[in-house]
């Protein structure tokens, strides 16, 4: 089932794909948080295809919740700027655009690997969950019951890709 769990900054639907019985334990898979990492959403689409096809046995005891594109605005903008990473938030009083959604969550928010400069690729936003994408993602994940637990931690699989510029 395809479900809209919110809207992005530019009012695009934030979509998840839910496969299996929601009464089962759930595994959550996140893709596409960094716009330029095109392989990440492609991986999620491949996983979805496998789960409804040849790997359907994987859904017998597991409820899969897949977020194939957490940053749809940024992804769409990579057609203009291939190396764009952030979302497309307009900052008041600045020509700079975007927040690194990966750094907009509340775990150790703003403590390391960030910049307070809104022009920087690693700008975390003004506060945790200041962005509609990360806030909707958090709220949706918290609403899912029966998450798979591994040593009392929720199981969320996050798909990133590595890039190098030469």
Description:
This protein is of the alpha/beta class. Helix content is 19%, strand content 19%. The protein has a single domain (2-158), classed as Zn peptidases (Aminopeptidase, 3-Layer(aba) Sandwich), CATH 3.40.630.10. It contains three helices and seven strands. It has a five-stranded mixed β-sheet with strand order 1-2-4-3-7. It is globular, with a radius of gyration of 16 Å. The termini are far apart.
Brief account:
With 166 residues, this protein is of the alpha/beta class. The protein has helices spanning 39-52, 72-77, 132-143; strands at residues 2-7, 13-19, 25-30, 62-67, 149-150, 153-154, 156-158. The chain has one domain (2-158): 3-Layer(aba) Sandwich (Aminopeptidase).
The biggest sheet amounts to: 5 strands, mixed
The parts where pLDDT drops under 50 for at least 5 residues are: none
Tally of structural domains: 1
Span from first to last CA? 41 Å
**Oligomerization state of this entry?**
single chain
Order of helices and strands: EEEHEHHEEE
**Order of the strands making up the biggest sheet:** 1-2-4-3-7
Helix proportion: 10-25%
Whole-number radius of gyration? 16 Å
What is the overall silhouette? globular
Quote the average pLDDT.
89
DSSP strand tally = 7
CATH architecture: 3-Layer(aba) Sandwich
Strand percentage lies at 15-25%
**Structural class by secondary-structure content:** alpha/beta
CATH superfamily: Zn peptidases
CATH class: Alpha Beta
- In the CATH scheme, what's the topology name? Aminopeptidase
Q: What is the tally of helical segments?
A: 3
